[in-house]
Amino acid sequence: MTGERLVADVMSDRFTVCEPHAERPEKGFAVVIGADGSTVGLLGPDGPGPAFVVAADATVMSLLDWPELLEWLRHGLPAAVAERDGRPVGVVTARIMAAEIARAARRRGSRLLTGDYAPYGQAAPAGEARVFCATCGSANIYTRFSKAKAYRCRGGHQLDPVWPG
User: Fold this and answer.
1) Which residue among 87, 91, 95, 135 is least crowded, i.e. fewest CB within 10 A of its CB?
2) Which residues are CB-neighbours of 38 under 8 A, at least 6 positions away?
3) pLDDT in tens, 48-61
4) Contact by Cβ (8 Å): 54, 7
């Protein structure tokens, strides 16, 4: 793992923290936190949405290897949230993630863009999706999340995901 860049190396500390149902920031990002201080969503330029959360000390490649990353970026994910000790410490913007995908593709070839590809013995992608339910306001945590699929909310009903745009 020597020489691998960490999420902390590419993240920005230019974000604010807010509680659920806050107004969106005029510019930049606001990380929505729950009562326990953990990330439960993200307020971006297009409004509230889910947060993809990754450890700040994870490698950039583990972020890029998340199976749904390209889908989320295509659907308007403005940034990923980096956490340390369960607290948000930075954001990795979509622009930075796109640049890192291009950089990795030049190094690794097209294998990066083939979904669940991972070489034997490589750790599973790090991170999780945190998605608000528009029906009940619950924050739901998934290791994999596709906007095209139906999920059960922890409130006991079908999840109605809050998505920007």
Assistant:
1) 95
2) 83, 86, 87
3) 888 999 999 999 98
4) yes
Distance CA 43, CA 30 (A): 5
Going by the DSSP 8-state scheme, the letter that residue 23 receives in this structure is P
Alpha-carbon gap, residue 29 to 25, rounded angstroms: 7
Quick check: 112 and 98 in contact, CB under 8 A? no
| Torsion, Cα of 42, 6, 115, 50 (10° steps) | -10
Q: Sheet with 39-44: list strands edge to edge.
A: 16-18, 30-33, 39-44, 47-49
Q: What are phi and psi of 17, to 5 degrees?
A: -120, 140
- Per-residue pLDDT of 18-66, as tens digits, reads 988 788 787 889 999 988 888 989 998 888 888 999 999 999 988 888 8
Six-digit token string for 86: 């369960």
CATH superfamily of the domain spanning 7-142: CBS-domain (3.10.580.10)
Enter the pTM of the model.
Answer: 0.76
Tell me the C-alpha distance between 1 and 96, whole Å.
21
